[in-house]
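#dry-run=false #mode=assembly
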Amino acid sequence: MSLNVAQRRLLQEYRALTNNPPEGITAGPISEDDLLHWECLIQGPEGTPFEGGVFPAELKFPNDYPHMPPTMKFLGDIFHPNVYPSGLVCISILHPPGDDPNHYETASERWSPIQSVEKILLSVMSMLAEPNDESPANVEAAKMWREKRSEYEARVKASVRASLGL
Amino acid sequence: MDVFGDDAFNVPDSTDWLGTPLACLMPVEQAFRCHVCKDFYDSPMLTSCNHTFCSLCIRRCLSVDSKCPLCRATDQESKLRGNWALREAVEAFKNSRKVLLEFARTPPTIQAILPDQAGPSSPSKRKATELEGPKEEDPETKRPRRSTRSTRARAAELTAAILQEEQDTTPSADPDYVDQPPDDGLVACPICLTRMKEQQVDRHLDTSCPGSPQAASKRRPIPAQTSQPSTFPSFNSRLTSQTSIANQNQKPPERLPALAYSMLRDTALRKKLSELGLSTHGSRQLLEKRHKEWITLWNANCDSSRPKKRSELLRDLDEWERTVGNPGTAAGGGGGQQGLGLVARAQATGAQIKDKEFDGKAWATRYGGSFGDLIKQARKGIKRQTLDGNGEKADTKGEGGDGKEDITPAELPTLQAREGESSAAPTPMDIVPPSSPPRLGKVDDAGAEHDGQAHGKDAIAEDTAMGEQVIPGTPDKERWETSQQPPIPGDD
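#status=ok
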């Protein structure tokens, strides 16, 4: 089986992630037939309302990865200003290079082929800890986060407990 | 998760050094790897901002973004310069990697021989060390005995073992071949191996050196090629690689200029493509992308120390065409949408099925159950349809987030006919319904409808499981374009 650039690079990343796993992150292709479709688990960062939770998500890579970024989608409910109600994650590192239609992201924050799955997942972890309410994907969550922080935290904590079956 | 035991999946990585006594080589190996493809540098090129990438990688990056991926400084393909010193370093590291890694992974079986004792390796002596080696230590034990030894002894051992390895791997046709130079106070010319006084060497190199090892060296006959003095191996290999570059430079393959596509009419572009011997099929957009990709492949190949043949490049272009080049995937602008994964997958699988060596039987057995389910589902759909009296399939839509497993009415006759023809599991080639591209297009619409809703976990799990079944469609490129508009990124 010959591998194209995207597949080979993803295998390489998978190898690195298994040999040297970063803390709080597990990721890998769902099946070896399709290296462009990954599943990952992210631990809720400590000291945030997400602490203690484990959040499954899927990553879908385009055929021209790493020149274009993957998309990431949480598989469970996540109440967060930068996560769409559908679970789709909206952070600058996942936005393709080139012109920024919204003019709020600097180019240095956006996708570049030198980024990797590991960096994406680490960025998502820090996004969980520090939401960016400039470009909310979930307006309700953003509003609550800005105006009624304790209510937001209580809601997140409740959903984390629910997701753990407590 | 699957265990990637297959050799094809066994990709060497810098993290392989972790857990071995040579873990310090991990950053060394990382330095030899490209930031874009994470593989060893292939024809490394320097950018104007002094960063290095594989020729193909940086050319692709620049064609997408015109910026250095590391520092985002604007750059142009024409300003790239080769980094040949790094290329040689990478080659040298790659060549020694396997031996080093094997050595690092096996516990030392050789007694601590000091390098000078290892000296000229007579075969009998080597045998002896090998024999006494395993006695002391169980060769099955994978754990190196780091803890019990001082670092220094360990280092000596490493050196000795590496020397041993080198000697083992040095091809030596002559059994009486003696590694040590005769003690005559003379040195050998690194090129022709003629022995002379040390101070004569420079002059000799400049003037009278014949340029290749002389078989009839006065002092000792040297079998051609096989036993060059190991005291100068790096110098020799450097020299040969430089010679090969020199040879290549005599007849350099010409780089292709970039075209200003906006200035070209369709016919002119087609003419350019056919002049290059490339396909002229497809939309304007595809033609441009194909031409661009060919230029990228071609120019990167010009940088290579071992350029590929034109036919190999054409194969690479074909590979690209089957995966990345297809409109609807790459043109989607970075997979801003969920549907893209499906499309990409469908195309990857399509390409796999089209492959000559494709094992149709295995495929049929593997997915036999799924095909059966699909047929059953289709049947159910028909029943429901007749009961409902209209084409709405409210139920099926509800259970699949993206509606991927929805069977459109258009497909039903195909599936039914299929089942009527043979009861055996159908092979993928003939399960492809003629209507597949429009259907996939439709799927996207359905996906868009659902986009606002939260997708339940179950729906997605099912969606993934069922995804495989619908995939065998190999989309007709022309129609694909029209039906498959690049999805509008839903974010922000």
